[in-house]
Predict the 3D structure of the following.
Amino acid sequence: MAQGSPRLEIERQKLRVHSPLDQPKSPDDLRARQLRARDLLRGDLEGSDLDAYVEERVATTSLEKLLNVARANSIFPATFGLACCAIEMMSTVSPRYDIARFGAEAFRASPRQADLLILSGRVSIKMAPVIRRIYDQMLEPKWAISMGACSSSGGMFSNYAVVQGADKFMPIDVHVPGCPPRPEALIYAFNKLQEKIKGNPEQGWRSRYQAHGTEEWARGGPGSKPSEEAMEAYAQAREVLGA
Amino acid sequence: MPDAPGLELILAEINRSQPGAVIDTSFDREQAALIVDATQIIGVLTWLKETPGQEYTFLASVHGVDYLPNLPRFAVHYELLNRERYERLRVKALLNDPAAEHEAGADGTPAGTPGGSRPDGVPSGTATQLLPHIDSCVGLFPTANFQEREIYDFFGVVFDGHPDLRRILMPDDYVGWPQRRDFPVGGEPVIFTKDEVTNPGWWQ
Amino acid sequence: MGGAGSAGSLEGRLRDEEVTIGDLKTEIEDRTGATVELAPEQEMMTINMGPHHPATHGVLRLIVDLEGEVVRDLKPIVGYVHTGIEKSCETMNYWKVIPFVERMDYLAYFSNMEAYCGAVEKLIDMEIPRRAKYLRMLHLELNRLHSHLVWLGTSALDLGAMGVYFYCFRDRDKVLDIFEMSTGQRMHTRYFQIGGVAEDIPSGFEKKVRELIVTLNTGIAQYESLLDRNEIFLHRTKGIGIVSRERLLELGVTGPLLRASGDAWDLRKEGGYLAYPEIEFDVPVGTVGDGYDRYRVRLTEMRESLRIIEQCLDGLPEGPWISDDRKYVLPPRAELSTSMESLIHHFKLVTEGFRVAPGEVYNPVESPRGEVGCFILADGSSKPARVHYREPSFVNLQALRDMAVGEYVADLIQTLAMLDPILGGIDR
């Protein structure tokens, strides 16, 4: 118009004064969100606004991470109760300590259909090969939780009949202490396993409190051996004690 | 329980019909027991079960005991119960350990000394002829079936006449009689982090 | 299913008809009219219901000889949970044996403890205070309730009634809350000590138990309404697994199995340990001895347990909860700072333990499964020389063969459920 041209261009300017979009109180401000949604639907969001909007709403991830999340949230435990811990495992299915909240209420009888072997109870020497065979029959990916003191380390039974820890013959992902562990403890272990499946395993208290370096290693750090003189002295002591 | 005089009467009665069967009685802490010669155990049990007036028809438990270092070493205890009068009676059949006598004969060391296991750690007396024998009472009391198998499994006592004498709780190919007193308890010592110095790399 | 009118159309499969399961060969000949020559190896099939099986209660292995669907022979193989508890007990002093021994029959842990503590108290000739007796009885009956609730839940689950499982475990958690209140642990509480109980009950305990009694009475009515007249349950349990009373006695079976076949044998009434003679309760008895009778006997026992609990609460005497014989019982900690003797006793009990004069004792107790008896051989030292448990599940398992032979495989599952085996007790 200023150049005297007969064509007229109408430039629409959005009325943004006093609009919540200008000064949003917080990113979650409801009015701001509503207005942005309205803009999206109208086709008015452009450029970086549009990118930001989409990123906030759609989770982009790798297929692997997605699969891991799916696996973690729908674990099929195998019905594997050995002894007293089995009763507490049964009560995690009960209404009070519901394990169905985490998607694991479908306990599968057949090891071929199960993901997770919850070793609940003492592992006797007669049962160990059976457990190994059942674990071998499970299809990958598979995990194992060693529930209770007896399957983690032999528990109070340090004798001829109990295998001192199930990880002597099979890999275990999470150990649960207790005799028997409370159902809440089992569910905590279950959650830890879920974190491990999703790819961020919980390494323990030393990583949480930056306390690496407090382990009681031999002088020289982890993996080092004691000095020669020390080894001789220990060998002598063992002879004397008749170990 | 039959009290001490009652026990003496039973001893007299049984010894009249089966001389030498009952060796001794014991009434200790209100528990009545008859100590019986193992070779005549069936006769004693039959007498106790069938004689009117005794009628100990319920066998509550059969279990084995290892009295090492006392001799005779083994015993099989029968816990009998008379349901009408609610009286319990224990019958103890004492057994010697043929393996120890065999070794005593061979080495000249006195029977029953500990340290009688072979150098490879397997307890002596695993061959059947070196195991104590006793008659099985499964014919009289069918409840003894599993329980006698358990005594065989844990003590090595062979029950002659048992329909199916094999190990019940230990794996079938296990060597050794676990609940004998000279069998080691087993297990592993507990290892602490401070033991890193003596057991390097235990955590791996 | 067809009623009386259409009975003719369903040949021989209704339970209310008389079905005799005969020889396979004659059965085929009867039905088809053809003469069949069966090779011997075609008749029997031996299958292995392995230690890992959803329906065996624990790791029980059954080798079943089947002819078609009919069980002809049954061999249980046990030992998959054998823990060597009896051997381990010989290396601990008397006080330390208690946690070992309670892990045998892992649903009836108070009964295990009572058998052991009663046996040691007989050995050392100790009389426990009255309050301790009542507290022990209270916990024993709560444990009986807990054991029967778990049994009902898992058995109903085996038979397909999943809802009952959730109801039972909901109520079981309430019982475990009571245990946690008085003992600090849900299972394996180590509450009974030699000489009484470890701790007195806290305030608020009585109120909570009375609430529980009311809740559980409604709960039991709920289970009864779900299962008592349930047609499927009735068809599955009525007339199945009947063994005569004489045969059961020959096999040494005790507990609800024996009571279901008509014999009112209960050690709480006959033997009269603790303070049971002062408590009024009835012993439920069945008529036929089939699966349904066993179910009814256990349910009624639950109600009787509630009655006993109520009487225990009403009649709970005041007084010490553990004996004050310092030679065998730890002195209270407050005394340790004032009395030198208490300190010495404490030291001796904690390090070496008390010594028991040589002797043998057998102490039977009524557990939810039958007669559990503890045999202790004392040799004068502070450690028992032999601890043996006569476990009811171990002896009752011998009756499984008699119950299951001649019935269908599906009935085997139900029979096993009604037998109520606990593999921890069988294998020890």
